[in-house]
Model the fold of this input.
Amino acid sequence: MDGMKVSGRRLISVAIIAAMSTLWVMNQSMPVQAKESNGMKMLQEMESVLVDLADRVKPAVVNISPATHPTPKQGETPRGDHPPESSGSGSGVIIDKKGYIVTNNHVVGDASEVEVRLSDKSHFTGKVVGKDPDTDVAVVKVEPDHDLPFVPIGDSSTVKVGQWVMAVGNPFGLDRTVTLGVVSALGRENVNLSRYEDFIQTDASINPGNSGGPLFNLNGEVIGINTAIINFAQGIGFAIPSNMVQNVMNQLISKGRVVRGWLGVGIQPVTDDLASKFNVKEDEGVLVNEVFEGDPASKAGMQPGDIIIKLDGKAVDTPQTLSRLIASFPPGKDAAFEIIRDGKHKNLTVKLGERKEEAVTASIPKHEPETVLGLNVQDLTPELADRFKLKDEKGVLVTKVEAGSSADSEGIKEGDLIKEVNRNKVENSDDFRNAIAKVKKGESVLIRIIRENRAFYVVLKTESE
Done:
């Protein structure tokens, strides 16, 4: 089997396309019986391609379940029927003949050991080498006395929408179930399954128990690890792209943990209201609302109000995209940023630091603005700063928010600290009143807020004439 690698084999997807094209050409000039005979032959060849693919990859797919009951000796095949998998069961795929297995973090959970069952019904106790909740990837290692069947990891950057894929897993305890479908979409985020999302969406059926199992291309390469479905939806499944999996897997095997780059900024989306204030297009880049003192971005000269539009030449259009790109880089990397500052494009090079687990993201209000400000404020005092957990010494503290006002709708709260109005610094209540006095009726106001030492921008609308 040679590890099930496909070196020297024909490219299956090309063969299928060629077969269909040849079938169409031949049909143009053939009698009906000949057409039916050749058509059936072509379909049978296509069918055999898929059967061959399933036969080659299934032995590398394993069942993973909690090690909560007596486990047979290494490699021992138990007698009798194996009981149905528990609700905590999932799938995995062997990616190395010595016994490294990739699965989901949520499949292994808090366990340090799991039970691994192969296609030949042999059992192993697998050690959890490492896991990464931020991508939902985990690595398990078994210790076989012989080489195991494995499959190669492919390049997910080459995956295209519409290409055929095969999912293999153990849904509902049904071992090594094969489903076929296509790639429905790429780069799916905001699914709220993990911190760093860049999912491959597929209509190949994925059910409970498929989690951690592989998504194959027609060459038998793993292009994703199946991780979730949308409840009550049919034909909508998600897989972690193989390039992300491989990066995480390599670090877990070599270090037991994942080390990620750190920029040191708070960020938020560029809404329509914010875009008009910063003279950019809606969803053009990501707005920097805070730069943490002493962190890499601060040392490189990045400022609140900067709009990050590219990182190392790659477009940045959502906070999730920026976070994922930063996390994919190692600490110490010189990252090239293209930003917009005060309407002008600027390039910055930032030497990334190391992300700490205790890092938190900025709070971002998401409500639509109303028509009045509705704010009462007073100068910040040391006592108030201590009460509201603020490190700043200057600024204007919100003491009251009128119910139903624009400020209320935008999520401004008592204890929020106002630091800027329309990009002008505000150090006391006089600064705040003078800045608001310059705003005409019906115009909007850009305000920068600090809440528990995390910053964000909001746009408030004044009453019309």
Q: What stands out?
A: The longest helix spans residues 32-57. The chain is about 20% helix and 30% strand.
